[in-house]
Design a protein that fits this description.
Strand order of the largest sheet: 9-10-11-12-13-14-15
Number of domains: 3
Largest sheet: 7 strands, antiparallel
Strand content: 35-45%
Radius of gyration: 43 Å
Distance between the termini: 96 Å
Shape: rod-shaped
CATH class of the largest domain: Mainly Alpha
CATH topology of the largest domain: 434 Repressor (Amino-terminal Domain)
CATH superfamily of the largest domain: lambda repressor-like DNA-binding domains
CATH architecture of the largest domain: Orthogonal Bundle
Helix content: 25-40%
Order of helices and strands: HHHHHHEEEEHEEEEHEEEEEEE
Length: 323
């Protein structure tokens, strides 16, 4: 910015060997006033110019940068300089205002929540849903991991990711909480938001199917001596077959009971099961045929990887049901 008079005051003051305070004392003004003149933030009062020129061993023409024979009026030059300084000051205010406004907008952008959008991504030959905070960019996929970049703040991004996860089914196994999306049959086993100086990275780690069922398959297999294993009892009066399996992300079972003396099917049912402690609980969800009264639920005690029916509704045919 142009600051002709201020630069000349500085030049003559230094040539005179005066500090800003010393010059101010001679003029009965503060050193801060002198500093403002020299920095072009203001001009001396018109009544001070003659005294200022005298203290600096120069004349008023040299002080305002015009020749003595110049036709321009001294007062006119000083007034024009004042107008120029006012414009410069106004421009400075505009720049400061714009800078502050940008800072405020950046702060709001980084700290305010704008929510997330659910986007579809290809995973293991199917489409899955992931909650992506708005204004994210540069999606990357590596095996089971998906990541996104954002210029927004870490905490607000974490909250937006949690808002998405809260729409999923919470599952707990191995003392860990996982998030199961039944619609796309995938589990989010981990997520994170990591920030550096310039941007944040949102990441998801996913696995196909119900992740906790994987551990149950192993656990149930160890307890029962294997899943998808045909278990049966075959004596003179009755034939019983029970198959506990893991099919299509569900623990299912099929039970069929036949009276060997008449070849009559006493029960043909299917359903689901779960293991709690040393018991297997069979929930009948569909009964295809029923020639005897069967309960909605049967409990088998697990002993040495065999199943023993606790409430024996087949007592007319067999004393103890062991599968």
């Amino acid at each position: 910015m142009d600051n002709k008079i201020g630069k000349l005051i500085t030049k003559f003051r230094k040539e005179k060997g005066l500090t800003q305070k010393e010059l101010g004392d001679k003029l009965f003004v503060t050193d801060k006033a002198v500093s403002k003149w020299e920095r072009g933030l203001s001009l001396p009062d018109i009544t001070l110019f003659e005294k200022l020129a005298k203290e600096l061993d120069t004349d008023i023409y040299s002080l305002i940068g015009i020749k003595k024979n110049n036709k321009d009026d001294v007062l006119k030059v000083i007034e024009e300089e004042k107008i120029k300084l006012k414009k410069q000051f106004r421009n400075r205010l505009i720049i400061i205002f714009v800078f502050v406004l940008v800072i405020v907008l950046v702060f709001l952008f980084k700290m305010l929540s704008f929510g997330y959008v659910t986007k579809h991504f290809r995973y293991s030959n199917k489409l899955i849903n992931l909650g992506v905070p708005k204004f994210s960019f540069l999606m990357q996929n590596k095996e089971n991991n998906y990541s996104f970049k954002s210029f927004r703040g870490k905490e607000v991004l974490k909250n937006e990711v949690k808002d998405f996860l809260n729409t999923l089914e919470f599952m707990t196994c191995n003392d860990t909480v996982y998030y199961y999306d039944k619609s796309s049959d995938v589990t989010i086993i981990d997520y994170d938001v990591i920030s550096n100086l310039f941007y944040s990275t949102i990441s998801y780690s996913v696995r196909s199917g119900n992740y906790c069922d994987r551990f149950k398959v192993i656990e149930y297999g160890d307890i029962l001596g294997g899943l998808n294993k045909r278990r049966y009892t075959d004596n003179d009066n009755i034939y019983i077959e029970f198959i506990p399996s893991y099919i299509e992300n569900s623990f299912v079972s099929h039970l069929i009971i036949v009276d060997k003396n008449t070849d009559e099917v006493l029960e043909d049912s299917s359903g689901t099961f779960e293991i709690k402690g040393n018991e297997l609980i069979y929930f009948r969800e569909k009964i295809n045929k029923e020639s005897i009264d069967v309960p909605n639920k049967s409990v088998f005690k697990i002993k040495d990887k065999k199943l023993i029916l606790e409430d024996n509704y087949l007592y007319d045919y067999i004393d103890v049901v062991v599968l």
